[in-house]
Amino acid sequence: MVKELPVVYLQTAGCSGCAVSLLNSASPTIKNMLIDQIAPGIHINLRFHPVVMAAAGELAVQAMEDTAREKKGEYVLVVDGAVPTATDAVYGAVGERNGQPVTMQQRVTELAQDALAIIALGTCASFGGIPAAEPNPTSARPVKQVLDDNGIQKPLVNIPGCPPHPDWFVGTVAGIILSGLPTVDDLDDLLRPKAFYGKLIHENCPRRAYFDEGKFAKKFGDEGCLYELGCKGPITYADCPLRRWNSGTNWVIGAGAPCNGCTQPEFPDQTAPFYEKLIDVEIPTIGACWTGKEEK
Amino acid sequence: MGKIVIDPVTRIEGHLKVEATVENGVVKDARTTGNLFRGFEIILRGRDPRDAQIITQRICGVCPQSHGIAATLNLDSAFGISTPGLYAT
Predict the structure, then answer these.
(1) What are the respective helix, strand and coil percentages of chain A, to the nearest 5?
(2) Is the pLDDT of residue A113 over 60?
(3) Which residues in B lie closer than 8 A to residue A13 (C-beta atoms)?
(4) Alpha carbon separation from A24 to A68, A97, A176, A263, B62 (Å, rounded)
(5) Percent of chain A scored above 90 by pLDDT?
(6) What is the 3-state secondary structure (H, E, C) of A97-138?
(7) Strand A3-11, strand A42-48: pairing
(8) Nearest-by-CA chain A residue for B41
(9) Dist CA A280 CA A294 (whole Å)
(10) Which residue does chain B place closest to A16, by CA atoms?
(11) Do residue B55 and residue A268 have CB atoms under 8 angstroms apart?
(12) CA distance B82 to A22
């Protein structure tokens, strides 16, 4: 018999970019993921996903609430977006109950309470991201903080990125299906899977040799390391240089643009201005040492 | 006379609610509500203007390019840079 893994994909204060990125999954394709057995005998049953589901309005909300009730402790909750909390969380609502809007904060706490595990997909859900950028007008909070504030203790995995690479999500879900929930050793201190966020962009950057030589691009299109044009690769953990984007076609630095540090909790306030050099600091764990001589 | 409420509207980016009043099979009144406020205009204040083209793309993950390009054209205009052939000045 095929085992069903129910999934509720809740969107909060985000932009649907994470969902669109996920739909771009190349191997497996999103179609295979949703229709086929993702692993022998296991089928992902996506019960609620506002960007792709055919149902709307009450029918959609009913599918979400029924899953929470009927599949208590069995479903995976994916949250895509930060959670607005200011002014009684009035800045975001999903669906209605008895004619009254239900706030995103309420939805997240309700659904998280009975979930098997929670995946915070994207930088907004993981760390607050753009909605939580200064001055954070809606007091947008990451999922972890909302769970902590409400005393909910459930396994949580953060998959940041603005947007995250589809493989980071699919790989994490595949890991859960094949070998169970990630252990402490599988995650870093920010609850990101080490398999995808274990190394700095800088460590695997094809332009790294330029950095070590002190050869820096002064304007876009120049040969050299993009550090002085604002690259945040030296402080950003992700495997973009190896995995690359759009089915492995290219990635940001391959296209000549600086990394803006989107998988980090510092994004966007401390990784901005995006086109200004990082403040010179001792950067740990970058391996080789740059002596600091500049070629003018 | 009946009232129809669709909340959430699905297969779109964002959080939308639509209410319609129907009379004899004809829509007499309709209103839509955006169910999410993030405050991009507030967040953008005081930042390096060049960051606008990256931040505004996060308004919508389905159509980020249009926001990014609009921000870029605005910056060109603010800095007095013309890009021949791209748009009429």
Answers:
(1) 35, 20, 45
(2) yes
(3) 36, 38
(4) 28, 33, 21, 19, 12
(5) 65
(6) ECCEEEEHHHHHHHHHHCCCEEEEECHHHHHCCHHHCCCCCC
(7) parallel
(8) A137
(9) 13
(10) B61
(11) yes
(12) 37
Could you give the residue ranges of the DSSP H alpha helices within chain A?
Answer: 17-23, 30-35, 57-70, 86-89, 104-113, 123-127, 143-149, 166-179, 194-197, 208-213, 240-243
Residue B86, pLDDT > 70, answer no
CB-based burial label for A286 (10 Å; 0-12, 13-18, 19+): middle
Say which of A20, A61, A260 has its CB closest to residue B54: A260
Residue in chain B nearest A98 by alpha carbon: B5
**Structure-token pair, residue B21:** 């009043």
Q: Amino acid identity, residue B71?
A: A
> What is the ipTM metric for this complex?
0.85
- Amino acid code (one letter) for A100: Q
What is the rounded CA–CA span in Å between residue A61 and residue B89? 47
Q: What is the value of pTM for the model shown?
A: 0.89
pLDDT of residue A112: 95
Question: pLDDT tens digit string along A200-218?
Answer: 999 899 999 998 888 999 9
Backbone angles phi, psi at A216, to 5 degrees: -115, 135
Joined together, the tokens standing for residue A282 give: 């001792």
For residue range A138-183, what is the model confidence (pLDDT) as tens digits? 999 999 999 999 999 999 999 999 999 999 998 998 888 888 888 8
